[in-house]
Design brief:
The complex is a heterodimer of chains A (386) and B (496).
Chain A lengths: L1 H18 L12 E12 L4 E9 L12 E8 L2 H12 L2 E3 L5 E4 L1 H6 L2 H9 L8 E5 L4 H7 L7 H10 L12 H9 L6 E10 L2 E13 L2 E6 L1 H10 L7 E4 L1 H4 L5 E17 L2 E17 L8 H30 L6 H8 L1 H8 L2 H6 L2 E12 L12
Parallel strand pairs in A: 1-4, 1-5, 5-6, 6-7, 12-13
Antiparallel strand pairs in A: 1-2, 2-3, 7-8, 8-9, 10-11, 11-12
Chain B lengths: L7 H11 L6 E7 L6 E7 L5 H14 L11 H9 L5 E4 L2 H9 L3 E5 L5 E4 L29 H11 L5 E8 L5 E8 L5 H12 L9 H8 L11 E3 L2 H9 L3 E5 L5 E4 L17 H30 L7 H11 L6 H20 L3 H21 L5 H14 L6 H18 L1 H17 L1 E2 L2 E2 L9 H4 L29 H8 L1
Antiparallel strand pairs in B: 1-2, 2-4, 3-5, 4-5, 6-7, 7-9, 8-10, 9-10, 11-12
The chains are: A alpha/beta (386), B alpha+beta (496).
Amino acid sequence: MSKIKRFCFLILIITFTITSTGCWNYREINNLNIAAGIGLDKDPKENKYILSTEILVPKAKNTAVVEKSRDVKSKGDTIFKAMRNTISGNGKMIYWSHCKVMVVSEGIAKEGLIQVLDVVDRNPEMRPDISLLIADGQPPEKIFKEGKSIDDVTSYKFRDAVDNQDKLPDYTKADTWDFIDQLMKEGVEPVASLIRIVYKENRMDFKIGGLAVFKRDKMVGKLNENETESFLFVINEAKDAVIALDKKASGLPVNLSFEVVKSKCKMVPSYTSEKLAMGINLDMDVSMTEVEGSADVIKPDKRKQVEKILEEYMKKRIVNVIGKVQHEYNSDIFGFGKTYRNNMPSVWKSVKGNWNEEFKNVATEVTVKVNITKTVLTSESIKPGE
Amino acid sequence: MNKLTTVLNDNIKQIKDLFSNDNTLISKAFTNKNSTMTVCIFYIDGMCDVEIINENIVLPIVDYKEEDNNYDGNKLQLLMEKVLYCGEVSKVQDLEGALNHLLYGDTILLLDGYDEILVINSKGWKTRAIEEPLSETVVRGPREGFTESIVINLSLIRRKIRTTNLKFKFKQIGTRTKTRVCMCYMEGIVNEQILQEVEKRLDEINIDGILDSGYLEDFIRDEPFTPFNTVGSTERPDTIAGKLLEGRIAIVCDGSPVVLTVPFIFIEYFQVNEDYFNTFIFSSINRILRAIGFLLATSVPAVYVALTTYHQEMIPTPLLVGIYEARQGVPFPTVIEAFIMLLIFEVLREAGLRLPKFIGQAVSIVGALVLGDAAVNASIISAPMVIVTASTGIASFLIPQMLGGLLVTRVIFLILASFLGLYGYIFGIIGLFIHLMSMKSFGVPYMLNTTINEMKDLQDMTVRAPWWYMNYRVDIISKNPMRKMKESLFRRRDRT
């Protein structure tokens, strides 16, 4: 009897473990279409979402087809419906787990991004590490179509550019998950990178650069590449940036470029006589990576002079971008609110309710300290012989 | 069987009747010089050394001249002690016992007037030379292997361990073949309980014939229905010597070059004799490779099927694209593809095994060209599946003794993964380990020392510690856990 009981018990366990699992789905890989990127736009007349999905085209054997991807367009009242509607124009179900970028039109961004973010966050197939890009004034469909080069998957190229952001901090690396995280936090506003198609010498190419500034989930403005870099210095995300110093702007005899070795920005909040003030202290170690001429800028006294000029230059840029964000966009993308919250909780409690207004009036004091720590391989400029 | 009489001719007739229709029996009756003794010898053609018979049996008797004609002592005793030039002569009373010796290559001698038989050792048949076993070749280490002759095999073991503590205990198994089986063990190291158990199981065997040690293995093993071995086997004397020194018991079976060792635990699959001859670092790396091989050989097809049919999100994008492109136009589901390829691999393996070498080449060409290349080009099989099958197959050859176990495990894992994805694969792993952990070999837990309690348990497991560090034997297998012979063994020897 006990044997029968044990056998029944085993059968029960197996049945339960098999039937009470989560998503169980058998699908052959070749019956899927793999999505590489997705573009989201809205048709204002019909109030319908327009989806342009880039799907991978498998290379057929023994053929010279080089096309690697193609775009599928679909419409729907909601995004998820539009995603399903791709089947009717495509034949196969689209598989979203390897979707790497999402390009959202400016229209949707201005209307509010939560409608888009929810799909990414909720859908089990989509991953929250999709790169979030905002189409800069152009429809996403066009960006996918015209950014395409024949031998590469467009979306994966976008993604590569985003992944290499450390070397070129003209935009942010933040993916959808980061965006949602920033959005839900108190005292800081999210940003997203901008993407556009540029026309150069009768060919079109994509360009990622600049930031879309958000206030909560609504886009309120843009920063250009230069401003973006300055902004990223403040929030400590421009680690390997290259700073070019033009001789006209600096007054030095030669053009110089510097690679940032170490950059640390510290925000010091203060509250005196009911006035909010924020000290922004940027401490940078740079190496001189390019000297475009034979003038000496490396001797200690000359170097001090270069450091001074660089400090001024950086300070100007940072003051400039802070001013623009404070007065033009009034969006706390620097996280001043967060700094108050962490360092002076009692102050934050009193200003929190009216932070929208208070943020504009935070007095900022920018100090930049630059050390030229090395000059890479040579310590001299190239001097032509007499 | 009839009793022997004192009349020689009656006895000769009786033996000849027993061997009627068997012309290999050779008999010769003759007398000594002064015809005081009439004798008849019998031997089996081809099993005896004819030179021994001529020089040491026939010649001395024929030449023997009895001085005292009225010798009233036992003439048989006289032959045994004074006449024959043989080291091993014994007196047997019953005919059946004598015939057993006769059939094993001895010569029997009947003397007129006596109802007893002299059995004279004249064994001498052709045996294979000692050569390197084909199934277990080494790069470094002794190259001799066991042969089919139990006497030679035992001498090979004896030559490695020259101590009186090495014991050989003979048994005769098989009601018709009467095969000689020998239990070897090291007294003082062996665990007596295990020894008794082995002896008990050997005594219980009831079969008409034992042709190879494999028969014995089936009879004495624990867990008869598992695909994993619970009895070890090898063709190498050095391996046997090593196992004996670890406290294991070796079972040598006449007619088989494969010697069994018990108890056998799971980790022994991964311990190869060469590990102990190479430097410990290299050996440890090889051991780890074998462990990885075990993992690959059981899991690669299952994990591949699970990932490509259930968990595509877990595959890195470039790899996914590669598999996606390779799968285009393949008519079968991935699971069926995997089963086809595994089947073909096993067929090729089995086909190549027993063929002569020159036909074997044809098999490998067909396998490599037709199946590897043409099937992929014709889109019948996708290229990644060929890689999966090939890596599985190669990995399983890292542990050649476990081929059967690996094959069964692999297929079960694949079936589970095809129904339930990685979830099913994990079920399989859990099931496998429950199965392995529940087994015992001669009272020793099968997975002994795979869980670590003390540092000393580690010394001969996934890594092989240097010899100067290996001071201990595995406790449960050996009664005497100290490896270095300081006192215990010597003291023991003095006592006995």
